[in-house]
From TrEMBL:
It comes from Liquorilactobacillus ghanensis DSM 18630. Residues 420-743 form the Cobalamin-independent methionine synthase MetE C-terminal/archaeal domain. Its EC number is 2.1.1.14. This is 5-methyltetrahydropteroyltriglutamate--homocysteine methyltransferase. Pathway: Amino-acid biosynthesis; L-methionine biosynthesis via de novo pathway; L-methionine from L-homocysteine (MetE route): step 1/1. Belongs to the vitamin-B12 independent methionine synthase family. 5-methyltetrahydropteroyltri-L-glutamate binds at R15, E16, L17, K18, K114, N119, W555, E599.
Amino acid sequence: MTTTIIGFPRIGAQRELKFATEKYFRQKITAEQLLQTGKELRKRHWQLLQNAGINQIPSNDFSFYDNLLDTAFLFHALPQEIATANLSALDKYFALARGYQGPAGDFKAWPMKKWFNTNYHYLVPQLTKTTKFYYDGGKIKDEFCEALRLGIKTRPTIIGPFTLLHLSEFVAGADADDFTADLLTAYTNLIQDLTAAGAEWLQIDEPALVYDLSATQIDWFNNFYQQLLAAKGPLKILLQTYFGDVRDIYSSLIKLDFDGIGLDLIEGKKNAALIQSGFPANKTLFAGVVNGKNIWRNHYQKTLTLLEQLSVANLTLTTSCSLLHIPYSVQTESFAPEIKQHFAFAQEKLTELTQLDQLYNHQQPDWLKQNQQLFAQPRVKEDPELKEKIAQLTAKDFVRQPAFQQRRQLQRKALNLPLLPTTTIGSFPQTKTIKKMRAAWRKQEISADQYRTFIQQQIKTWVKWQEDAGFDVLVHGEFERNDMVEYFGQHLDGYLFTKNGWVQSYGTRGVKPPIIWGDVVRKSPITVEWSTYAQSLTAKPVKGMLTGPVTILNWSFPREDISLKEATWQLALAIQAEVLDLEAHGIKIIQIDEAALREKLPLRKSDWNSEYLSWAIPAFRLVHSQVKPQTQIHTHMCYSEFGDIIPAIDEMDADVISFEASRSNLEILQQLQDQHFKTLVGPGVYDIHSPRVPTKEEIVAELHEILRKVPAENVWVNPDCGLKTRQEKETKASLLNLTAAARQVRREL
Ligand code: GLN
Ligand code: ZN
């Protein structure tokens, strides 16, 4: 047996790539210096894998921004105006990644989307009739040769044509057929070029095979690969999949002339059974048994048993997906040894692979013993009271009384808001001063009292500002929180935080997901102090601001010893306690953000309900089911791509939902109308992701557009999302235009 991985995190142990790239963007370093940083990181990572004893080392998993962008760029699938612009290749690449405004022109970035069911974002290639794919050398070959010069013969990796087309957007009447022939030539030439350079293996990633596939898609795949593989010559091809199973196409995959097939045995529920139904003796199975998405140690005995049950002749051990989705190493974290021993980040997963390899060959039995001991003792003390509470939940715990329409009348009376009430999504700009004060308080340079007084001042200033600007429902501004998950985690039992556990989210941006270590219980009130302080300053209602259980779960590393459902319900009870506390302290409107609700929606539609929505939606209902009829519950989502789950969103049974709409041409409103959506809506009336200030007239026009689809008494007026990343000046200007626009449209009604 041998060992390999699908890909390694590229940002560097200390996020060197992020910092270098950002310096390059700010013109603090040259292109050569940035390229040099990339080169050093690649070398360091290849050697790390080599020293860890990994036998097959991938290359071209490195990227300056994103691998799908790399693939499109490699094959020259860029818009004409960028291809011909007076820019270096590197700057053309970055122009696609993040837009460009300067002497060479004004180019928009390609859009970004979440990569399958992860929080990583890829660039969406925009393919037009004139896009022409071709291969003439480039990054994939250069990096193979670079490693070869270091004495390491890598296995280059590339995203395959099926996934490339699946994830791209076809613009202006283009379709897959326009590109198939060119792609076949391009991939064939790539194969020949790598063969000539001395490569033995090529890894082609086709994760899109784990979606539900149509007969047409399967045909396309078969046709394409039959031709491509007929031309592969001596190069061995690994067809790599991840994030799920390949039930729709397995029978074809094993017939095609691949040399290796990579299957995810962690998330791919049906893969083991598929393999057992027959795996050809002349192919190698790349068995993805080490979880590339979560940070826990592998359970060796379970893995070894699974491997034996597969009974495949040629086996290579690998990760379930690229290690891109977990932090670099646990070495630099300061957890106590009893805790640390339970974690394996990217670097530690390498050791797990080589240990499993040897154990499978009946060597080093001590490793197995140690691993068994680790799992033998209970890792955490479970909370019997919490367990009991969850076991005792009955239908009525998930149902708010009275029903929506009745509460609506009561809330109308209680809140007495005008038509088209105005509000914001929660956060106001997190200025440098705020971040500095928080850092000073953490380092104990200022006292807790000083910090509290400072935050209160911010709240006071902004409450007054909102009143003057004419907002109907105010917010306190979220100055106390750095982030919508970490802040909550810090007030919950059961959470752990890393110091350096960065995971790439997109481009140079990383997130540091906290770890759910044990049972989650609310330790103490989380936001009550801030919300009640804000409410004490004004007669207008102040909206309490919470993160919902599904989002907290989806942006944390979850436990593996209890189900996601159970973990989410624990979180739901914790947030429920906070909701009731806010209500008891006089907060009349409470917003529970579910910005990441869609993230773990299964990739296969047939699993949406049974595997996810059937517990995720009840988790949200559990949070607010016990409030008084007069208390108004809001929720917020950072996207409007829920046209396909509208009934589920309505079943959350919130009173009001705000969502991103300004960039999606308000298409969603028609869908909501068609499906008789009951929840009141606040479609974002301007895009907060840009510093641009919308004019009053634009917002008026947007509101007219909304009112064509939704009756005025169902509409709220608010921006797209929170304003924490914006500057104060543009924020105030935009919001003044928003309230002025609402006033004008109200007068017209
Ligand atoms: N209430 C949060 C804020 O305003 C919501 C953020 C989000 O949706 N991502 O910042
Ligand atoms: Zn948002």
